[in-house]
Amino acid sequence: MTLTDQKAAVGAGPPRTWVPKSRSRPDGLLACADWDGSVRWRDGERLEQLFEERCDRMRAREDGDRLAVDADGVALTYPQLDERANRLARFLLAEGVRPGDRIGLLLDDAVDAYVGMLAVLKAHAAYVPLDAGFPPDRLRYIVADASVRMVLSLSRLAERTRPLADMAESVFLDRVRSRVAEQSPDRPGAPAAGEPADDLCYVIYTSGSTGRPKGVAVGHRAVCNFVRVASEVYGLTRDDRVYQGMTIAFDFSVEEIWVPWMTGATLVPRPDGPSLLGAELDAFLRRRRVTALCCVPTLLATLDPSVSELRFLLVSGEPCPQDLVSRWHRPGRRFLNVYGPTEATVTATWSPLAPDRPVTIGVPLPTYSVAVLDPERDTVLPPGAMGEIAIGGIGLAEGYLNRPEVTERAFVPDFLGVPGNPSGKIYRTGDLGRINAHGEVEHHGRIDTQVKIRGYRVELTEIESVLLRVPGIAQAVVSDRETAPGTVELCAYYTTCADTAVDPERAVAHLRERLPGYMVPAYLEHLASIPMLPSGKADRRRLPPPAGPHRLTAQGDGAAPRTRTERTLAGLLAAALKVERISVDSDFFTDLGANSLLMARFNAAVREHPDLPDVSMRDVYLHPTVRRLATALAQAPSPPPPDRVPRQPAAPAAPAVGGLRYALCAALQFLVFLGYVCLASVALDIGTSWLARGQGWLGSYGRAAALGAVALIGASLFPIAVKWVLIGRWTPRRIPLWSVAYVRFWCVKTLVVANPLARLTVGTPLYTLYLRALGAKIGPRALILTRWVPVCTDLLTIGADTVIRKETFLNGYRARDGAIETGPVTIGANAFVGEQSTLDIGVRLGDAAQLGHASALHEDQSVPAGQRWYGSPAEPAPAGCEYLTVPPARCGRLRRVCHALVMTLALTATVGVAEVVAAALLESRPALVQAVTGAGGPGSWTYYADGLEIAAATVFGLALLGTTLVPALSRLLSRPLRPNTAYPLYGVRFTLQRAVARLANTRFTIALFGDSSAIVPYLRALGYRLAPVEQTGSNFGTMLKHEVPALSRVGTGTMVSDGLSMANAEYSSTSFRTAPAAIGRHNYLGNNIVYPAGGRTGDNCLLATKAMIPVSGPVKENTGLLGSPPIEIPRSVARDHRFDRLATGPGLRRRLAAKNRHNAVTMALFLAVRCLYVYGLLLIAMFPLADSGGLYWVETVGTAVLELAYTVGYFVLVERAVLGFRALRPRFCSLYERSFWRHERYWKVPSILYLSVFNGTPFKPVIWRLLGVRMGHRVYDDGCRILERTLTRVGDDCALSAGSILQAHSLEEGVFKSERIAIGAGCTIGTSAFVHYGVVVDDHARVDADSFLMKGEHVPAHARWRGNPARESHDGARCRRP
After folding, report:
1. What is the pLDDT of residues 789-804, one digit of tens each?
2. Which site among 252, 603, 962, 1171 is 20 to 30 Å from 943 CA-CA?
3. All structural domains of the chain
């Protein structure tokens, strides 16, 4: 295609639809496959001429009324814009502007900017775009460095131009409009403007590592070629209306402005004022009929694709998340991802985006070439090898203005013979990348040596360069140092010129004026000399620790406190941060470098101060400066004094529990256990005797099926009968702990929860029938998916067509003040309760009301009918929060009855038979085991060898089946489930989905592979879509749940802690559907997170423990989310990046290999420990205790008791052995250090699952003590998980509720941290509450249900804390004092 053909085609619209294809030369140079080798520029051609030719072609076609610009209040056709620019160009020439002059554009009005650019070019000058938001120092530097002759601006920006008065003439366009209007509208042309002095078109400044921005000089040939190529390839048309939102000071604006003009499209600039995003931008785009948008992915993520009318999308400037592609891709929409540094004239590579292909930066544009070079040598690396991305072609800039040394380093001689490369240079971008097997370029970040401070990447050389400009400083070195455990600071060291003194305060002020707050060193140290290496470089290892004062790191002089509250808060914060003073306007995190642990200590100090209200972590994150926090505290209602707190009527305190009553309760519970085992043993003994008389395999199977049916039905009816006999109907009451009434409560609770029917039929009509039989008032068509079986069922009301999602607590009771309190839980019809929610007693959810995921209703809370609430404690949710989104389907009574019958038969034929056979072999008939194995008696070696063979076959067979059969079945059974398609409940597809969920959530295999590199291929085998994995050896933990693994997506570089639930199935009372749940790239997920389908988070997010994932609003990216409802927090802090050096560099592969070897041994130990455990169970089961048939049931009882005792002793011994018979110590280390690997082994190899058998008994605290917990007396534990046993202390008479967790560690950003937890006497930890490391809870304090005590929190004695994150609650009665 000739240049003339190209120009004609551009005038009529895109001549062809380009697709990204590349060709690679043998030497590795990559180019566009369809490029014929010609450039899109002719000698002497200039950018403004392309615009003029566009105008001329429109006039020739009598199409001159087509708009070039459609701004608010100003609409200009192409000829009108051309004429305005002509008039201004003639005015500039009259004012003395000459060819080659550089003219600054400091304009905040889009139309003036467009006219100014064109006019400067028509005057044969070059423009230097400036931004009104630049600091004065940056403006002065650019104007001086670029030798700007004149600055075009507006009078409202006079304050910004005043510092430039001695450097360049300022012309305010609004003051000279009348003079400009007097000029001729004809183009000035060469006679008036003179011959062009050079090829320079514009100079755009980018930040650099030298302490000063670098001016990139771009010539006309480069930019003309680019806009022609882009207009050919991109697919914009003359009918498009293109949003222009970027300031002209960034080269992305060239793509927004000049490419649309080349196609005859219309620019729609953003309105004056702050930048638009989210709903405001959505509304603007629709109102102004915008069809094309060029933006960064972060901006696009704030928009709603469901209401967008955009035809064309182009993203650039940062990595584009795959999730964003999935949400925005649709047929007929052109969606491009482009990449290019300013030095390569805007864009060098491009790629259409689609959900079914990975995101890359694509292939070179026509006229561009790309290679991947060795970062150290001018050598091309082969495809697939990681190296430095390099670009060649006519699009290269001329270099850096006035920076020959930097230009020489970045623009290297063309040693490859790049075609169409007039500069003879290749530009080294400094970006890491590689060419994949499809001939596309993958981008993998920056090469530059940097450090991270408070989550920001910082080039130390930039700080050193700024410091060296302080008068009197001769040498400067900046280093990052850990000045205190967990605190990383920047420290600057300097020497002075001879006989010169430097004022440190003036030096710090110099830095503050020129650098962001996070780049200002916390310490400034004067040295007599900088320690040097033989190479002449500074020896940073020999730099002394800082000895001077810690300096304020916020910019400016620092705002002083104005009020008494501000002074007090500032003093307490300064003490917590160990600094002399702080500015009340400094951000706790971004300016002062605090982290949540430090702020927890600050909060504790505030609570100790009598004149200040309490401060919570939520307060700190919502009001992150002293001034804002003081204002918020002043506006908050003051809590009443302790002696005036209004009290609710309370039941009398439970009497003190003596040792005799406690021991009597334990004895009664043990007798009940023995009685149940005896009853089960007699029944099982009779049943297995009858089973043994079966003839042949078919006869034996028939008997086993019949016996299994009887066993399942009997085990299901028995708890119902016991409940009605021992309790009758549940009523609101208090039951003193360890009393006889409590033993009745415990008996019923234990049997109701342990019912096999409840475990196997969750989410089916049989489960609802079971709850109704226990007294629950449940309306028709209610769907209950939680495996936490309600206990006080008569107090539970669930209306018709209500949906209760999994892992929800509806207990109907709680432990408090030495007693069990029971109370009603009322849920209306057509209601919804989200996954992993908690409903305390005395709560109500109205008809058609919805409670979001990870939420809680506390006592006396009531959600009005039809409302949506979320959070812990729950509060009204914002508009758009909708949880019941599945359309209904036909699901009548017949379908439900048939499903119940089929499921009963299936359970009988499979689970019932398997349980009967296993029980017969292991518990009731040792002789059968001996007959099967041929083993002799205990005196024979074959007796033990055959037992070991059975144990090994059981454990290793389970591991093999879990590794092969489970993934295969999971994939096979999920194939009929089409995403986002609603199906009726209780049909074939519902059964398949529930089967997939049960199979894929097999705990054994996830625990085996978790916390190791092996978890990644295992999840992929299940169906997970994992982006190219950045293997850490700990990408996922050992506890993970999912509904449909094939619809689970996790992005590159993401780490996931234990307890993640991928909620990629949605339900109504009549239907369900599966939907993708996608987690972005470079996320960190804390513990116990529910990630729903459609979760509104993207890339680079920190999702804190128990954080609620938003389901509405803009996509959250590059931020952190904490709590429920979620609040935004800093993405990361300095402490989290202390060990970055271990996670990067050439040693990473070696460290990862060592970790993998250690983890392989851990996995082998996991299997060996379980093999030996099963072996011990077999030996006990096989041991003959009686010869008389009448005493076989006694043998079974003895076997059961002995095996339970063996289980406890065995796993206590295993855990102690794994720890080396020592206690854990608090740690702060990288996941690539051996101390962390040993901790992972401690999590994986032992087991504490058996402890649930002892819930609610005095035996469980005894076992906790054996495991290393410093456990007090008379502790009530109803199902708490204590993860770091030897780091945890629990006082006397505490209550640890069901689902609560005491976790003395965190693993954030690959950094492991552990610290002790101390729970005082008489404390209550509520249902599903979470207590993090470093927490201290003083005596008789209460942590309410579903609360999250963050790391380092200190709960005072007798306080009541509630919420996620928890804060002190003054509602209701105070905690009872003894």
Report:
1. 999 999 999 999 999 9
2. 962
3. 46-53+78-198 (3.40.50.980), 451-542 (3.30.300.30), 564-638 (1.10.1200.10), 664-876 (2.160.10.10), 1248-1368 (2.160.10.10)
